[in-house]
Amino acid sequence: MFVLFSLIISFVVLSTLFYFSKKRHTGLERKFEILVLLRQILLLCRQHRALTHQALISQQANLHHNKLEESYDIMMERSNELIANAQFENKPMYRILQLKLKKLHKEWDQRTVARNQVVHGKTIRHCMFLMDEIAIAWLIESGREDVSDEYHMNWQQVLDSMEVLTQLRISIQDLHYPEGMLRVKYYCDKTRRKLNQLSLISPLSVASPTSSKAMHALTEINASQEIQWTSEELYQLTTDISLIISQVYDQMLSDMTESLYQPLPKIAFG
User: pLDDT for 5-17, tens place per residue?
Assistant: First the structure.
């Protein structure tokens, strides 16, 4: 009787441990899949911005039409997958993201280049904030203070860089005024310093050809008496810098997920 009772207790304990282990693994898998989907959506937003930006500069609304429609369709597919995979209480915030994605595509050809930059920039930042929420929840559950402290410290650097880049973008619209040109030069120098700080987080990302070119341009603009760059060229520079910041954050996420679960799949930024 005692042996039978012991076996029953052991079975219950093992079943409980198996249940919680399986539940934990399912939770990790869901968080990982959501991060992967948000990451893909972020890259599709960047692609959509690049295509619409080129079309607006050339004043040819039909330029890259097929690529643009394909990009948007894939974006909607990934967004639907995101909503389907999310837990019930989190679905509303991913539906809000989907509304923003639809807004990107709606009447984009009626925007100015500056407005197009702002709309896409807000959505890209929104994606990154959603990714940060997943990361924070994951870190809290893991109990890994070492990984958590490093992530929070690096995220603050990324966040500060995004804020400075936003100020640089805003200042470009006043480039043709003396005060506006001074603001552009000021934020170019401030952005350069932020990129230098990001190089401590992800040396390879900030040592890329795109980054080296951007750093040189920022230094040149700040040192010049008169800015020779056009507004369109400056907006393109901010797009390149946005890519660098995204790459740094992506490396942060991959380092975190590798420590807690598994690394994110490799992707090609563009």
Answer: 555 565 555 444 4
- Say if 169 falls within a structural domain: yes
Amino acid, single-letter form, for residue 114: A
44 near 71, Cβ under 8 Å? yes
**Can you tell me the distance from the alpha carbon of 97 to that of 40, in angstroms, rounded to the nearest whole number?**
13
Distance in Å from the first CA to the final CA of the chain: 68
State how far the Cα of 243 lies from the Cα of 210, in Å rounded to an integer. 9
Q: Is residue 20 part of a domain?
A: no
In whole angstroms, give the CA distance from residue 83 to residue 90.
8
Backbone phi and psi for residue 90, each to the nearest 5 degrees, phi listed first: -100, -10
3-state helix, strand and coil shares in percent for the chain, rounded to the nearest 5: 85, 0, 15
Residue 3 lies in a domain: no
> How far apart are the C-alpha atoms of 148 and 154, rounded to whole Å?
10
CATH code at position 208 = 1.20.120
Specify the 3-state DSSP secondary structure of 91.
helix
Q: Whole-model pTM?
A: 0.82
Measuring CA to CA, which residue among 226, 242, 240 is closest to residue 184? 226
34-91 tens-digit pLDDT: 999 999 999 999 889 988 988 888 777 777 788 899 999 999 999 999 999 998 898 9
* β strands within the chain, DSSP E: none
Mark whether 163 and 247 lie in a shared domain.
yes
96 and 216 share a domain?
A: no
Q: Which of 92, 118, 142 is the last residue of a domain?
A: 142
Task: Pick out the chain residues at pLDDT < 70.
Answer: 1-27, 268-270
Are residues 182 and 89 part of one domain?
no
How many structural domains compose the chain? 2
Q: Which domain holds residue 54?
A: 27-142
Identify whether residues 170 and 182 lie together within a single domain.
yes
